[in-house]
Amino acid sequence: MSDLLNRFYKNQGSIYKVLLCIASTILIVYLFPKSGKFQFDFQQNKPWQYDNLYAPVDFAILKSDEQLEVERAEARDNIIPYFNYDQDIANEAKAAYENQFASVFTDSIFKNRQKELKSFGHQILDDIYKYGVISDLTAFEDGRKIYLRRGNEIEETSIENLNTTDEITTLINRRLVNGPYVQAVNRFKELFYDIVQPNVFYDEKLTTKELNAELSKIAPTKGVVNKGSRIVAKGEIVEQKTYQVLKSLQAEYESQTWTASKYNWVVFGYVLLVSVALSMLLLFIRNYREQVFENNTKVTFIFFNIILMVLFTTLIVKYDANYVYVVPLCILPLVIKAFFDARLGLFTHVIAILLLGFIVPNTSEYMFLQVIAGIVTILTVSELYKRANLFISVGQITFIYILGYFAFHIIHEGTIDNLEWETFSMFIITGLATLFVQPLIYAYEKIFGLVSDLSLLELTDTNSKLLKELANKAPGTFHHSLNVANLAEAAANEIGANSMLVRVGALYHDIGKMVNPTDFTENQSTGINTHEDLSPDESARIIIDHVLNGIEIARKNNLPDRVIDFIRTHHGTSTVYYFYKKAQEQDGEVNIEDFKYPGPLPFSKETAILMMSDSVEAASKSLKNPTSVLIDSFVEKIINKQMDENQFLNANITFKEIQTIKKVLKLKLNNIYHLRIEYPE
């Protein structure tokens, strides 16, 4: 039992990663659509790349969306609208005419003709209400047929037979001006203005019901393809008609009612493919990013971001697949690059795109555009903490999306007509959404405890609390750290290492000296050496302890682990040589292990650069009369000694890079001491 527990604890990191991979696979497959995926990828006006295709079953040919829309528009145009005729309002108008006629026609000129005028007014009123009065007809075109419903009877007529309230005056003028009752025009206008009210109303509910009935009669299909019929031959251009048949077959395949057995097989297939993709990512991290692989939090972070992108894309596809490019997928490589490196960012981005290829439409186009956009993202954003770089990159990403879409449209359509400008706006939205990466990186730093270049930039501020404390308590150490930072940054830039990280590490690598600052020569301004009264063992222990003290101070001040690594490794397992020799002189035989730093050895280019820069800068202070030759010699001597002691054994740094670092350090020290080549007399 104890052996089993020991093996478990020994391999718990590997077990966690396997469980993480399994859990991620299950979650991603859960998000995926569970219908079968059509096995052929085809595009209109492009050659059919597969063998001859024959209809596997009988299926109906679906009409295209454009054709269905034309038929629906035709149905809407041909529908006859319904209007309700209200007889009660007409009767009320006629009754009001009877009551008000006498009070309007009181003039003497009408006294002997009231009976004739009243009868004539009845005729006008009958004409007005023959088909009725409506308040407004601007929504309906002239000459259109309508159904006029009077109670239970429905009459078909023309919309022009209806009178509007604005037309009453025109009707009165037409009937009276050229007739015998021209003097009564104004009186009739006055009378009808008060009594004529609209009595015909558009019946939207009944019209819509009839329209829906007509729309439901539109068949979504147009013909049938019989089983065994050849649909397309190999190499044949997929024209519009063939394209629609293929789309119909795809819809038939994906709309099948899946049995439990088929459904399980589909899920099993997804599990295999997703698990293979995630396993490849895990293997890449293990083989090429061992430090990341050993950190479960970092591996979880990478998988979390992939799942997040799959989740967002799945939600968009389920809502409307046309908006799939709204998802700012380029955030993924930006985030991974910010915390790790460009190569891992691009590999992760490609794995995510491979997974999304299962659920997005036009898979080949989508994958091409997203891979190219990811490459542009990785290549253009060199320093994320510089805001201008991010804005420039966003502009380039948006341009690549638009350029790619434009090219695909030309390939498919053979023309620039019918460009969907809405798609261009989606690409612009995607580019702008990519700017959200900076607050996202800040959130990730707090949640996962990771460190980006943005945080490193903040740590370089010499006005920060910890560096100000170092400057006040140990000014000589602070000055030394600044010099080391300048040397290390220049060397990192020369070999392509992370210059920002190495500068931060250099600034904080000696903060442990704040505990006993006067025990270190650079802070002994009074000339009093505290080590004169101590044994070599005690002095060596004080010197060595500045590493442990530095780690403790760094943790209390919440410095990131990436920075603490520089404190731990900047002396590696080297020997405090001065006190070791002094102990040998006093005691003869001594244990060299008592005079060695605890390590660990530098394990990256950046930590190796710091070790070289720190040793060279500190040793340069001992030069009495520095010359170019002397500086070149002691730089070679110090770094070669570190190499002989295998201090760089665990660092992924080459001999060529070490030689380059030597040249940079020599040049910088010559500049510091203002040395020039000695010319012969």
TrEMBL record:
The HD domain is annotated at: 477-619
UniProt superkingdom: Bacteria
Q: Name one GO molecular function term.
A: hydrolase activity
Q: Where are the transmembrane segments?
A: 15-33, 265-285, 297-317, 323-339, 344-360, 366-385, 390-411, 423-444
The UniProt entry, under Gene3D superfamilies, shows: Hypothetical protein af1432
Keywords attached to this entry: Hydrolase, Membrane, Transmembrane, Transmembrane helix
InterPro entries recorded for this chain? HD/PDEase_dom, HD_domain, HDIG_dom, Metal-dep_PHydrolase_7TM_extra, Metal-dep_PHydrolase_7TM_intra, PgpH_phosphodiesterase
Name it: Phosphohydrolase
Organism per entry: Leeuwenhoekiella nanhaiensis
